[in-house]
Amino acid sequence: MAQHEVSGNGLPEKDWFSVQEISERWGCPIEELVHFAETSKLQVCAKLRKVAGTQFEFQTNSSGEDATVEKSRRPDGFTGLYGISGKDIGVLAKDGGVKPTELYEPDQEYTDAEALAELIEKLRQEDGNAYRFICVDEGEPWWIGGDDYWYLGPDGNPPIAWVMPEDLLVTRKERDRFESQHEIAVNDSETSSDQEIIPDCASEDLRLLVEASRQFWCTAEVDKAGTHPRNAEVVAWLKGKGLSQKQAQSGATFIRPKWARRGRPEK
User: At what angle do helices 30-38 and 19-26 cross, to 10 degrees?
Assistant: First the structure.
């Protein structure tokens, strides 16, 4: 079961947010968010339906020394939440909409074909890692802007493969990563729950540990070890925030949930 942050009204936070919600939270125009996405500083995604394409999956083998490639297609196309690449966002920014050429899993590090060899090297470092992306079939867009006309699919419903600025979404994990990296001060209404948890008298080190817990553990899932951060990653992040090696190691241990395994099995 996923571990979720709690919103101000006591309900779990959503897993993704519209760019309008992010715009209000960060106090910046949507056009600026689109720019960040185009320049690959911010990862965005969209809900798509019945997109025709071929999925490529690169998976490390049992020894973690190499990667295999699998290709697959789905008769009804691909439906779900998918990441949109920076180059496709560039077309969206210029034309007001885009039929993406490539799709990938939300929160997954995006890479293009030129950088794929380097990514496979990274995958070899850990058994069970995978990278998936979908090459969308070429052809005319299903949405013709001038006439608001949709070509209907076999079931009488239109495929959704055309993305407009208002369709863009940001996952909670990506929102938290971006805020932490750029030290963004969010709207007061968004931070009320943190203010209730952390008293004004709390030390800076305590606040840093709470931030680290949000950054590394709030999106981890109990039964999926692959979503658990490595201890070294947390230690490096804390050291980058000014803690000593010893303090960072103690902090990483302190914020690690009891349900998380202590380290990952040796290969």
Answer: 110
> Is residue 260, in this structure, part of any structural domain at all?
no
**Both 93 and 166 in a single domain?**
yes
Residue ranges of alpha helices (H) inside 10-95 are 19-26, 30-38, 86-95
Per-residue pLDDT of the chain in tens (267 residues, 90 and over written 9): 334 455 555 678 899 999 999 999 998 899 999 999 999 889 999 998 888 888 887 766 555 555 567 888 888 888 889 999 889 999 999 988 888 888 888 877 655 555 555 665 665 555 455 677 888 887 544 433 334 344 444 455 555 568 888 899 999 999 998 998 888 877 645 444 444 456 667 788 888 888 888 878 877 777 777 788 888 888 988 988 888 888 888 888 888 888 776 544 444
State the total domains in the chain: 2
- Domain of 24? 16-171
